[in-house]
Structure formats: C-alpha cells, structure tokens
Amino acid sequence: MKIRRLSTKDSTFDADLKALLAFETAQDDSIDIVVANILKDVKNRGDAAVLEYTNRFDKTSASHLSELEISQAELQAALNGLPAEQRQALQAAADRVRSYHEKQVMQSWSYTEADGTLLGQQVTALDRVGLYVPGGKAAYPSSVLMNAIPAKVAGVAELIMVVPTPNGEKNALVLAAAAISGVDRVFCIGGAQAVGALAYGTETVPQVDKITGPGNAYVAAAKRRVFGVVGIDMVAGPSEILVICDGKTNPDWIAMDLFSQAEHDELAQSILLSPDAAFLDAVAASMQKLVETMPRKDIINTSITDRGALILTKDIDEAIEISNYIAPEHLELSVENPLEMSKKIKHAGAIFMGRDTCEALGDYCAGPNHVLPTSRTARFSSPLGVYDFQKRSSLIMVSQDGAQKLGKIASVLAHGEGLTAHAKSAEYRLK
Length: 431
Fold this sequence. Notes:
Number of domains: 3
Number of helices: 17
CATH architecture of the largest domain: 3-Layer(aba) Sandwich
Radius of gyration: 25 Å
Largest sheet: 6 strands, parallel
C-alpha cells in the first residue's frame, strides 16, 4: 500500500492539497445521453417503459408493473423472519434515529404587530416522497432508516420506496428496514427508469414531490435531470473521512477508521491530519499491517493509494484550518478536548468527537443522519434531516390600519419600479 505523505512545510503543499481533493463531478456524457432517453421514454410511455427497462436491466420477467410491488405483508414477513439479533439491532438503530430527528421538527409561528397586522410562517410536510434504495449486492438497510424515518417524523403522508432486485434478488434486511420505518409502498424497480417513474408518475407509480437516497452514476444523472420537476436531496460524490489526531490515540484505531470509508469504493477519500510525525509513521505501519486482514483490501488499497493522505501539520490549529478548507463529509476529532475544538469547526457534514467515537457508529445507530454533503459541499449544505421534508409558507394578514402604512410604502416603491398596477393595488386600499 502506497500512502501519500504531505507536510504543510512543503512549498508545494497548497497545490498538492488541491490536487488531492480534485474530483471530477461532471457527469459522463455517454451516461447522460442514455439517462435522458430513458427519462423521456418513461415520461411518454409510463408503466410500459419502466417495465421494459426493468426486465432488461434486472433480468426480471414481470408482465405488469403491479407485479413488482411488494405488499406490506411481505415487508412485515421479512422483519419477522430476521434472526433475533439482527431484528433487535435494526429496531434499536431505528429508535435512536427517530429520537434524534424528532428534535428537528420545525414549528409554525406568527406574531401580531401593534396595528393588528399578523405575520408569520406556516410549516407543512411534503405530501409524497420517493426513496431510492440501492439493491442487489450494494444493499444498505441503514440508508432506508436514514431517509424514511426523517420523512415520517416530518409528517410526510406517503413514502414510496424503489429498490432494484437484480435476478429477483430481494434483501430481507432492506425490506425489514422499510417495515420498521413505516414506508407505505415498495416497488422492485431501479436505475434511471425508477427515478423517472417517481418524478413523472406512471399508471402504477404515483408522482412524488421529492426524491432522496443514494444510487449509481445513472441514478445520480437522472436525479440531476428531474430536479425542478421534483425536489432532490443532493447529488452525492464518493464517501470521505478526515481525522484530526493529537497523536495519543491507538494507531490501529485510526488506521481502521480510515479504512472504514476507503472500503466503500475506489474513489472514497481518507485523510489524517496530525502535528506528530512519529504518530503518522505508526498509523502508516498499522495500515500496512491491517489491510491484509480486510476482505475488501483491493478496494481499500486503491482508495488509499489514489486519494488518501497522511498530512503533517505545524500544530492542531493548523489542522483545524485545513479541515475547514476541506469541509469533509465525516470529521473525527480524536483529541483530548474534542468538544472545545468542535467550536472552531465551521465546515463539516458530521463531527465525531473523542477517541471512542468512530465514524461507523454514525453510519448505523448513533442517531444523526448519515446522508451528508460530500466534495466540499459542506461549505454550504447540511445533513439530510426532517427540515428536508418540511416546507415553509409565509403568513401575511394586514389589518386595515396596517394597509394605510404599508400601502404608502409599497406605492412609492412600485412607482419607482415603473409598476403602476402594483402601486394602484396598494393605493385602492388607502382611506
């Protein structure tokens, strides 16, 4: 395993860091053309198109889309059929995710001014949301919990889940997670055709207001294209972890924390920042030793070699400064006073504080959402949450007295913009 070593003392450090972080987010033109054609076909032909693509890509043989819907009874049977340990773990994770997200619910509010004018904000939930869940080998029940539970806590009336089942292969844990999360309907469809079905609606799949959940390059391209017709959560890039360590944590722990993201795929990024050069050496040695024990060692090797780095900083404050520039998806503060340090962090998807807080706990059961901004988008965006499934309407009820004051202000500004009807509309209400 080759691990890139950088030092902030190097004259080329800034350029080296930019090169390390560079990731081509532009979609592949050939994928985009395929996706555009699929979406157009689904929009025009509905069920027939979705069925055709599903039978072709997933090697199924359904004659009607309704055959690919999973009943609530089957979801419950999947949950009941789990080994006790798995079922208990899934339920415990769901309970913690629900408890955390219940704190995020936004409330409507209003206030009344002295002249009787009422102003405020009314919060309502989205009516119907589509949840995309990867299927087959890359099946993640944790993704079901993290997307479905906040939607239900927000008050979304109907949650439609789509999950591809290549060769008819259904993942019992994914179906069980849907049962625990309160998903209303589940269709065994995937890819761009599933995104199109949710965005435009078909004879069998109802149109949704927003689509959330991870997927492959075709799913990501489809979500980009349907944005505007429906809302989307984000177009996520490869997973990332950044660790800041003072050199006093077990190097094996840090090595495995870096591997925990590297094993996702070859494009994942794992970076360690520390002012302790000997500690960086120790972690490098741990990585060399431990990678041989990993079932996904080839993926880890490629990820660490191509996109990973161990970075020597002048001190912890410089490490914080670099972290804020990188704006990582996952940030571990493996230091003595992590809570104090966290106050200096401006940009990160999720902050894991203390030597015992590994990022993996956040992936499954800590409670906060694991759907996080990647590729430096944590500079301007946030984790998925209840607020993504609620929206706000402004409330304005102007009293007769208020109309006299506001009408004059509006009239002056409207005339200034040359919009006479606007001005007259306000002036008609002046006494």
